[in-house]
Amino acid sequence: MKILITDGLAKEAVQMLRDAGHEVVMDEATPERLLEIIGDHEALMVRSRTKVRADALEKGTNLKVIARAGIGVDNIDVRTAVEKGIVVVNAPSGSTVSVAEMAIAHMFSLARSVPRATSALKKGEWLKKQLKGIELNGKTLGLIGCGRIGQATAERARALGMHVIGCDPCISGEALSKGGIEPVPFEDLMARSDFISLHSNYTPENRHMIGAEALSKMKKTAYLINCARGGLIDEAALYDALKEGRIAGAALDVFETEPPGESPLMTLDNVSFTPHIGANTVEGQFRAGMIVAEQVLKVLNGEKPDFPVLPKA
How far apart are CA 22 and CA 14, in angstroms? Predict the structure, then answer.
């Protein structure tokens, strides 16, 4: 069968598909080109760039499976796919460590003003007196979303001497406590945390869950980190809070529009950025690629996949 890969995949995963006897087509298709070529393939494998919407699914008359080499599937119209009998799979554990480490990296970067210090030195400025940092040790980390990545972040934060609190409507307080995370209501988390790290899935219901009201509950000394999905934060409200000094800073790996273009956030000194690379490590991409390759082969062989994605009720 023909397998279309549009966003890159670990070479070992590609070889696994070819060794199974399938034809693999690599094409970083534009939305227009995807409509032209999707109908020729039984499987489609994507990451976050490719959007698999209803119009593409209408053209994908031969599709049996769509695989997301990662966790979030907000770039795939899962409901329409399933209604058409197309199996959707993902790699829920592939990038766990990679994203957790990115969140910790952003915390260190904010605590010690690493981006600003680097930029200043490149300009010939010596800001030794101005850049007084803080330690992570003894600080409170609030996790919004305590699934695999949230728990992995908590484990690393505790090793740094941080106290971890969290909220997740899908996980019981008892389960959070067993994982070393103090369960707290959302409002308490916003008010108590020195660092807040987002690890929630994006849904239309939680769009802009971090807006003006939520930001107003944060300490003036607190920092916000988002390595999950851009739509979780109201970026206009975040800009106002940062510019007015109502929170200390933020670090964003994801944006509501990607690339973010000339976002006002780019003009501020107390916010740092990475271009949606939280999961983009050699190890993470290898794991995610191998997992989804295995899932695709199972579906094409008529077997049940281990990680099917179903539409939300």
Answer: 10
Residue 309 lies in a domain: no
Residue 189's domain spans which residues?
96-273
Query: CB of 69 within 8 A of CB of 288?
Result: yes
Active-site amino acid positions: 229, 258, 276
Q: Are residues 103 and 242 in the same domain?
A: yes
Looking at the structure, do residues 143 and 260 belong to the same domain, yes or no? yes
- Quick: pLDDT tens for 10-22: 999 999 999 999 9
Give the three-class secondary structure for 296: helix
The backbone region for 37, taken as left when phi is positive above 0, alpha when psi lies in -120 to 50, beta otherwise, is: alpha
Per the DSSP assignment, residues forming a β-bridge with 107 are: none
Number of folded domains in the chain? Answer: 2
Q: Are 301 and 295 in contact (CB under 8 A)?
A: no
Q: How many angstroms separate the CA atoms of 76 and 68, rounded?
A: 8
Residues 6+ apart with CB under 8 A from 255: 230, 235, 263, 276
> pTM surpassing 0.85?
yes
Handedness of CA 198, 272, 107, 149 (dihedral sign): positive
User: How does pLDDT run across 46-88, given as a tens digit for each residue?
Assistant: 998 999 999 999 999 999 999 999 988 989 999 999 999 999 9
Helix (H, G, I), strand (E, B) or coil at 141: strand
Instruction: List Cβ neighbours of 211 (8 Å cut-off, separation of 6 or more).
Output: 233, 234, 237
Are both 268 and 126 inside the same structural domain?
A: yes
Mark whether 45 and 84 lie in a shared domain: yes
Spatial distance between the Cα atoms of 227 and 149, rounded to a whole number of angstroms: 10
CA nearest 223: which of 249, 186, 245? 249
Q: Where are the beta strands (DSSP E) in 194-241?
A: 195-198, 223-226
